[in-house]
Amino acid sequence: MSENKIQLMREKIKILNQAAKTYYQENREIMSNKEYDELYDELLRLEKETGTVLSNSPSIHVGYELLTDLPKQAHERPMLSLDKTKDVADLKEWIGDKTGILSWKLDGLTIVMTYLDGKLQKAVTRGNGEIGEIITNNARVFTNIPLNIAHKRNLTLRGEAVIRYSDFKKINNAIEDVAAKYKNPRNLCSGSVRQLNNKVTAERNVHFFAFSIVNAEGEDFDNSRINQMNWLKSQGFDVVEFKIVYSSNMEETVTWFEAHVIENDFPSDGLVLTYDDIAYGESLGETSKFPRDSIAFKWRDEIKETKLLKVEWSASRTGFINPIAVFEPVELEGTTVSRASVHNISIMEGLRLGVGDTIEVYKANMIIPQVSGNITKSGTVKIPDTCPVCGGRTEIRQEKGVRTLRCLNDDCIAKQIKLFTHFVGRNAMNIDGLSEATLEKFIAKGFIKEFVDIFRIEKYKEEIIEMEGFGEKSFMNLITSIHKSRRTSVVRFLYSLGIPNIGISNAKSICRHFDNSWERIAGASYDELIEINGIGEIMAEAYVDFFKKDKNRKAIQNLLAEIEFEKTDISNVERTLSNMTFVITGSLEQYANRNELKKFIEDRGGKVTDSVTSKTDYLINNDYQSNSSKNKKAKELGIPIITEKEFNEWLKKGKSQKK
To answer: What's the average model confidence in pLDDT over 234-250?
Structure first.
């Protein structure tokens, strides 16, 4: 019997270690927090029953070895994990007749900061608890860290580096490649804090919240952690939000935190309870894994039973097709939820999902809907052999022990999300409300298969307003933006098609050359195109090939039925700058800004680029002696540098000859 239990322990350890490795080292998840906690608790029970603790058990190992090139340093005192509970009664019993501090358990990266002579000397990550990484340069650019403090003797403190949910969303929305997006704020924070270039860290808006003092030379806190926290505030540190608790007010204080977790912009995965009495806490010592002066409180997940209605399959640009559980709506943590990602085939098969099954759902960390279990386990859900977006063949692949479903069609629309993002962009059709993430959702659901479908999205109104993040108002705002975009310029439309190498500047040149006539633009020949300044042979060939393809001609024909071109007055301005290329740099005096001067040049047939090259005719810069890179490059290449005044006088005299 004991041998069977030990074998069961080996199996659980293998799964737990793999889950921890993928989470901490590879920034991905193969199981939910709830599943991990339950498996971990089962392992502890077996270890207690057998009296055996295996050498690779996560119960005696803290974290994993580091895999970066950052220098490493051993901690003076090991940084242990905290024992945990989900029962408020346990907190009341633990605190007894003592005074405690109850604070957020922030979900970021723990950092040890050392100050000397009032200045930040060193910052080291928790690492594996014994050895961390030195990230001092990165810590210096944390949003709220004090670089100089009043205390001039040695100070060593610990705290948590975190990234707010609001910043996490902004950063993730700016990442075009879905596969490169961060799964949660903790992963983003870990990657940001451990950058080799602290410029990246500075752009990520990392915050630091102190939660304990290791050593404050020369300071007397009267044996109180509360005094320590208040002293840290006086030195300029933000400290983790905390409340003073006793056994008598524990329940109401925990309830207060639970009520505020949803509105808390900083990610947290529970609470931490610590004795205010420093000496008493230290006298309790520690186990091989846990200190005895603190305990973590994990949110007791609100689990609801519901009926699985169907499993949808969501295709992404990476080729992965992920299962989404759709169930009868339930109220969880104050909101109604009806959908939850099942992440991959391995998790879906482990849950043995089937339509009509009674499943259990909850919100991980009270935020993200998850399927935690399946009571009936019929296992009748079929894995599709075709992609829900393009109908192409699918294939199950196994990588690092995880089974995933992939679409094998390289031309799958879901894989071409960048084309759609470009089409709706500001310089193209300029459709607000269609972010890359929204486009990906619409494509995955089959609402959009080609560009023209965007203008016909109203027929999916009911489905869209039920989607997470949408509603009647946001849907109507989107429709208004789409209708507004129907009236557009020929330049915007040409640029929106995503023709290889045709940027907005080249699109303007082409449209100007053909007097904004779409018939002439679409029917342009190779010989006509290479006559246009800035259009080379390769670009001309790609352009002609694009308009030759039946698929593209049909797509354009469909779009032309939905849009209307603005009337464009053919300028009577003499095209004195035709076939000439300019670069503008430095401040301007006679034009409001560079865009005004750029338009002035383009109206006269010229082209404005951002970089000085051998093809540049003139660099416009009011400071000839400037040491700017553009000035240096122009001088190296023998490109004339002229001022604004010289440019205007030059035009008045009609000197439009090339250099």
So the answer is: 92
